[in-house]
Amino acid sequence: MSINRRAFLKAIGAIGSTSLIGRHSKAIAQEHFPGYPDRFGVLHDIPLCTGCRKCEWACKDQNKLPNKPIETYDDKSVFEKKRRTDAESYTVVNRYPNPKDKEKPIYVKFQCNHCDEPACASACLVKALKKTPEGAVTYNKDVCIGCRYCMTACPFYVPAYEYHNALTPEVRKCTLCYERITKEGEIPACVKICPTQALTFGKRSELIKVAREKIRSKPGEYIDHIYGKHEVGGTCWLYISGVPFEQLGFPTDVGTKPYPELTKGFLTMVPAGVVILPALLGGFYMFTKHREQMTKDEATTSEKKETQP
Amino acid sequence: MTEQVKETYIAPSWLREKVFMGMTFKEYIRRLFTPFNIVAGLIILVGLYFIVIRYTQGLGAVTHASDNQPWGLFLSWGLFTGIPLAAAGYVLGSTVYLFGLKEYRPLLRPAIILGFLGYLFAALFLLVDLGRPWRLPYPMFVSYGVGSVLFFVAWSVTLHVVLYFVESCPAIFEWLGSDRFRRWALKVTVGATIFVVTLSTLHQSALGALFLLSPGKLHPLWYSQFIPVFFFVSSIFAGLSMVIAESTLTSRYLKHRVSAHYQAKLPELTLGLGKAASFVLFTYFGLKIIGIAHGHHWNLLNTSYGYLFLVEMIIFVLLPCFLFAFGVRNRSVGLVRFTAFFTIIGVALNRFNVSLIGLNWKLPHRELFHWKEFVIVITIITIELLIYRWIVNRMPVHREHPEYKGMH
Questions:
Q1: Cα separation, B48 vs B382, whole angstroms
Q2: Which of A124, A152, A259 is opposite residue B71, by nearest beta carbon?
Q3: Predicted confidence band at A4 (pLDDT cuts at 50, 70, 90)?
Q4: Which residues of B touch A282 (CB under 8 A)?
Q5: Sorting pLDDT into bands at 50, 70 and 90, what band is A23?
Q6: Contact B206/A8, CB-based, under 8 Å?
Q7: Which of B144, B149, B159 lies nearest to residue A263, judging by beta carbons?
Q8: Looking at chain B, which residue has its C-alpha nearest residue A289?
Q9: Which of B 210-229 lie inside 8 A of A, CB atoms?
Q10: Do the chains contact at A263 and B209, CB–CB below 8 Å?
Q11: Which tens digits make up the pLDDT trace of B25-80?
Q12: CB distance from B152 to chain A under 8 Å?
């Protein structure tokens, strides 16, 4: 059987319709995104943190996660090992040795950094994770299929999964108290409860000014680096510290490029490939077809010559 | 009266011819009890138990439930290794239809079935691995994360299952004896092939592109901006090796399902495939070297991960490259066949290094996968093998259907 004109046109039609999938290109090929102008954020002044872990309690209270009485949070033994966020804790405080003063260890609060251009959101194939104009990276459990690519993509190892939930497992992470901020005009629960002002909530642009002022006004107290200002293209959580950030468990190899740009090149190539490759392959097919025809014709003409005297 | 008898006679005979391979039901069941089938059945029983546990108690009941290493054996084997091995379908499809190498036609149908089952089972592994498996069609119909590489992968896997099924239709309709449907199926075959080759090129690379989002997490020896190209090029020799490996096993263990024509042509075709694989392996090796040079990672070779990388590159890429070439030059079909199996292990090793071992290499403590995951993977592979045998035993895959001889 040979391909006829109709079959060929059918194939072309099929190819044409797939190039419609190529509407990715519009979404991806946008120019550099400077971030939503009025996004909120939190500044974590690490030297002010005393490791009371009240933020952990408040977070669980706010998000209705399994919680213990607030007094039990005085227990310092939890600092013996480094903890990460999990399905039942959206934030954790870890302790690090202080190279300047052994008596005064350093406490660092850890949670979702709410990136300006989040790796998790660009990884999500159903748009369950979204960057909101208010700054929070929110999660929609109603469309999540549970592929956990967001967890593989997150450079900070933040999202956690409900592995022991058989029917309705969700990805869990800090919401920046999105509902509280937008509907109740409140500030995040962890910031509200912090007794030492180690956390400041506000417009990210303002927080950068505050951070700069702190670094400038107390020389020697802080190193000259606002973590999160440029890291992974900028995050809504910002940190200032007295010791270099790599000593406090912060990944310092994440670069300043927003993560979505890492796959942008590949994704813009896809629609191009969907158009160019069929043309090329169809061309090969036509050559092959023609060659077969030529061999056939040659065979018949030589036969004819042989039969003619 | 006579008509009634005739009817009752015809109905069981269709089943008997098409499904029970010409035996009565009783005889068929009796014949099923072979040592191979009994072992396979036991494996499946154990595996099904764990699969039930997984669906009733959650992924955490059969995996390490790690928030740091969310992807385990189901994806490393089922998706990241399964898909390049399913490349057999697009590699042979383009060889025969697009480049016009008609000599390879006897190997085409098995390759397409390999492609079809490869993708179907990749989807099956996803159903085991996804937190909410019934939402598998969501990227297609409910919510479109068009900025995600995984979105493209999801669409590709779905389209591949459909297209490979379309390409398998001629064999299916010959088996069912439906001449009209067979002719329809043949008409769209070339279109489907062009479509599959296009999508496969992009989609094999897309599996690599998934890891572009993990620059700090994936070991620098494997992380490269060229990783999509590595994945695509290695899928070619993975596909070629799979065709050789499959033909080796079938011509040996399912001899009676293989035509004399196929058996006679096979040695020469095997050498041809081996030659191609050798060439592609060499290209791949060169590309990988450029990858290290580009990242200035020579110093990392002298670390434990570096040794693993060298094992992968020298023992499982360079060595098979030479073994293929040597086998072809000495016309040793046996060596080419051995090398094909060897290459498949190499491809699996590479995909495991990228998606499991080299990922999160900086974390101090991590467990790669739980033994229960391994049991489930073995179970699903066993089911896949049995289905493959079921198809080959019934449909004209390695032989021509007597009614359609020479009519392709």
A1: 12
A2: A152
A3: low
A4: 194
A5: very low
A6: no
A7: B149
A8: B100
A9: 210, 212-217, 228
A10: yes
A11: 888 888 888 899 999 999 999 999 999 999 999 999 999 989 999 999 999 999 99
A12: yes
> Domain coordinates of chain B in residue numbers?
33-395
Tell me which residue in A123, A127, A160 faces B213 most closely, judged by beta carbons.
A123
- State the virtual CA torsion across B178, B181, B184, B188 in degrees, nearest 10: -100
Mark yes or no for CB contact B70/A151 under 8 Å.
Answer: yes
pLDDT band for position A175 (50/70/90)?
very high
Return the amino acid letter for A79.
Answer: F
Choosing among 2.40.160.20, 3.40.470.10, 1.20.1630.10, 3.40.50.2020, the CATH entry for B33-395 is 1.20.1630.10
Distance in Å, alpha carbon of B334 to nearest chain A alpha carbon:
32
List the single residue in A with minimal CA-CA distance to B61.
A164
Give which of B74, B213, B404 to mutate to test A binding, by max A Cβ within 10 Å: B213
Record: contact B154-A125, CB cut-off 8 A: yes
Report chain A's C-alpha Rg in angstroms: 29
Burial (CB < 10 A; 0-12, 13-18, 19+), residue B199, is buried
A1 shares contact with chain B (CB less than 8 Å): yes
In angstroms, the separation between the Cα of residue B88 and the nearest Cα of chain A is: 17
| Structure token pair of residue B21 | 């391979």
Reported as a single tens digit per residue, the pLDDT across A41-85 is 999 999 999 999 999 999 999 999 999 999 999 888 999 999 999
Structure tokens at A133: 């104009």
Closest CA–CA distance from residue B190 to any residue of chain A (Å): 7
> How far is Cα A51 from Cα B190, in angstroms, rounded to an integer?
67
Residue B3 has pLDDT above 50, yes or no: no
CA distance B285 to A193: 58
Say if B359 is an interface residue toward chain A (CB within 8 Å): yes
The secondary structure of chain A, three-state, reads: CCCCHHHHHHHHHHHHHHHHHHHHHHHHCCCCCCCCCCCEEEEEEHHHCCCCCHHHHHHHHHCCCCCCCHHHHHCHHHHHCCCCCECCECCEEEEECCCCCCCCCEEEEECCCCECCCHHHHHCCCCCEEECCCCCEEECCCCCCCCCHHHHHCCCCCCEECCCCCCCCCEECCCCCHHHHHHCCCCCHHHHHCCCCCEEEEEHHHHHHHHHHHHHHCECCECCCCECCCHHHCECEEEECCCCHHHHCCCCCCCCCCCHHHHHHHHHHHHHHHHHHHHHHHHHHHHHHHHHHHHHHHHHHHHHHHHCC
Give the C-alpha separation, A261 to A287, whole Å: 39
- Between B132, B183, B199, which is nearest A169 by CB? B132
Percent of chain B with pLDDT over 70: 96
Asked whether the CA dihedral B54, B58, B60, B65 is positive or negative, the reply is: positive
Of chain B residues 326-355, which have a CB less than 8 A from chain A? none
Arithmetic mean of pLDDT, B373-402: 91
User: With an 8 Å Cβ cutoff, is A251 touching chain B?
Assistant: yes
Cβ-defined contact of A281 to B149 (cutoff 8 Å): no
CB contact under 8 A, B58 and A164: yes
Burial class (CB in 10 A: 0-12, 13-18, 19+), A5: exposed
pLDDT digits (tens, 9 = 90+) for B243-292: 999 999 999 888 888 888 888 999 999 999 999 999 999 999 999 999 88
